[in-house]
Specification:
The protein is mainly beta. It is 13% helix and 40% strand.
Length: 557
């Protein structure tokens, strides 16, 4: 990075040198002095800020962080190019692009809480928690991301710690304690993980003095070995008490699990409250709610319990996002599932409620939410019927044949889609898109128009917003027939009609009398020998009867 006034004065010196060269040597006055841009990487950080101070407001709570601007935080002019013979072009720049504000609870890790622009020397952090002690720090950054050394504030305490951060959950809720145990070990191969899980589960139960059925292993993962598990509640032994015993046991003996094959010392243990709420079946347009209650049981009158709640999952919400409770005060919020918020669509819905508090013993509670709708609306559902697959059979050249495919929406929401034919271009459709309300049907005509004799094939592709079946394919096949030099009577479906002896393009009684005159005769009209076997007999009669009353169009010849 270019630094401050040094570059500014260097630019003036270069400009002056360029002017001297032009005016000092008239013979060389026409020469332009320039240089290309030098390639380089800016890896020089700005200088640090001055003193960082913090002022708390315990009633909110929040903390106002202020600092003295870095020495490099000033505007200056810098050349925009490398040609200075005509005075050059200069732009305004600043070696400081902004300031990062960091926060660290005593005994914890730094968290970036804000980034403010250059020239700013204050930030109000409203995300702090009462009862904790923090250290703030500020760094200056430049446009290339280089960050100065950090300047820290003094420790600041936000009052005495509250109590009562564990909520009183709705009746019927399943309560447990969620834990993450990290061991100094290597994750076993997949074929050995089932036994490892069972051994860890048994070791946890033995360490806590609880029945193994209360330990639910949720997962194993690498990162040393990370074991996610839950301790379920028991009226005679709350999960909270069991978790406290686990913390004490691990702190007293980090090697508590070394006896399990493949396990090593405990690296760390994290505990959170966990529970679940099932709202059950919710009617269309209805709202199901449950109440979570908190009481600040701290004995210190200055202790303030702060509670924040947030939901994830479609249809779920909380009545309030935050609570601030003085010592002895009780407050609550409702968690709701609103059927209309998910369009009253039938189905199962899952969500989560995360509760964060500043109670040191109950920082986090995670609640699994579930509900369902069964008497609401069904999503759009495509049903295709009719000529499936669409086999046109034999079709005479010059006489197109059309088959019909029906598209039905058996759901309640609108079904929108499009159609296209892939393969032989002799297949065409009479529509390329559709929008169907619930229960509606559209008939799609597929036409085969043969142009040369032979087999033809294709595919009708139906694409829609049906979530379960977005694409439906219908196979198309046909055989084109060339009538040749002999005229043939063809009906509307492309079938050959036999028995029109008088050429009227229809098989009528006139043709029957002609056939009767030739029936059984030695000297007969060859046209009446419909099966061409050398005589006019009952086989020809049955064929004639099958075609009686039919009409069509002559092709060929």
């Amino acid at each position: 990075m270019s630094r401050g006034k040094k570059v500014f004065f260097s630019g003036l010196a270069l400009l002056g040198l360029s002017s001297f060269l032009v005016y000092a040597s008239p013979a060389d006055a026409a020469i332009t002095v320039s240089s290309g841009t030098a390639a380089g990487v800016d890896n020089l950080a700005p200088g640090p800020v001055g003193t960082v101070t913090v002022v708390p407001d315990l009633g909110v709570p929040n903390v106002t962080v202020t600092w003295t601007l870095a020495a490099d935080d000033f505007g200056r002019s810098a050349p925009a190019g490398s040609d200075f013979t005509s005075g050059g072009v200069f732009v305004s720049v600043n070696d400081v692009a902004g300031y990062n504000v960091w926060r660290r609870p005593v005994g914890g890790e730094n968290v970036l809480v804000a980034t403010v622009g250059p020239g700013n020397a204050a930030h109000v952090d409203a995300t702090v928690a009462a009862g904790l002690t923090y250290i703030f720090s500020v760094t200056a950054i430049d446009g290339s991301g280089n960050e100065s050394s950090a300047v820290e504030s003094e420790q600041i305490s936000l009052g005495p710690p509250p109590a009562g951060g564990k909520p009183t959950v709705p009746p019927g809720s399943v309560v447990s304690k969620a834990a993450r145990l990290r061991l100094d070990a290597v994750l076993p191969p997949i074929d050995l993980q089932a036994q490892f899980r069972a051994d860890i589960r048994a070791a946890l139960a033995a360490l806590l003095g609880v029945d193994v059925s209360r330990i639910i292993i949720k997962g194993l993962s690498a990162g040393s070995v990370i074991i996610d598990f839950e301790i379920t509640d028991d009226p005679a032994d709350p999960a909270e008490d069991a978790a406290a015993r686990l913390e004490t046991a691990v702190a007293a003996d980090p090697n508590a699990f070394v006896g399990v094959e493949g396990a090593g010392p405990v690296l760390d243990l994290g505990l959170t409250n966990a529970s679940s709420v099932d709202f059950g079946a919710v009617a269309a347009d209805a709202v199901a709610s449950d109440t979570f209650t908190f009481t600040n049981t701290a004995s210190d009158p200055e202790a303030v319990l702060s509670v924040t709640a947030a939901t994830t999952g479609a249809g779920y919400s909380t009545s309030v996002a935050t609570l601030s409770l003085a010592a002895g005060e009780t407050g609550s919020f409702d968690v709701s599932f609103t059927a209309a918020a998910v369009g009253n669509l039938n189905g199962a819905y899952a969500g989560t409620l995360q509760i964060l508090t500043n109670d040191p013993n109950n920082r986090e509670t995670n609640v699994a939410l579930s509900s369902s709708i069964s008497a609401g609306l069904n999503v759009a559902n495509i049903v295709v019927s009719g000529a499936i697959p669409s086999n046109f059979g034999q079709v005479t050249i010059g006489l197109p044949r059309t088959l019909t495919v029906n598209i039905d929406n058996s759901g309640d929401l609108d079904l929108t889609g499009s159609l296209a034919v892939e393969g032989d271009s002799t297949f065409t459709i009479d529509t390329s898109s559709f929008v169907l309300a619930g229960g509606e049907t559209v008939a799609v005509g597929i036409t085969f128009t043969p142009v040369v004799a032979g087999a033809a094939s294709g595919t009708l592709v139906i694409t829609s917003d049906d979530e379960n079946e977005p694409t439906v394919s219908v196979a198309l096949s046909a055989t084109a027939i060339d009538p040749g030099d002999i005229p043939q009577l063809i009906d509307a479906d492309g079938n050959v009609v036999l028995g029109d002896f008088d050429g009227s393009a229809a098989v009528t009684f006139d043709d029957f009398f002609i056939f009767a005159d030739n029936f059984g005769q030695v000297d007969f009209n060859p046209a009446t020998d419909l099966d061409a076997d050398g005589d006019v007999d009952f086989d020809d009669f049955f064929s004639f009867a099958d075609n009686f009353g039919k009409s069509g169009t002559y092709v060929g010849g």
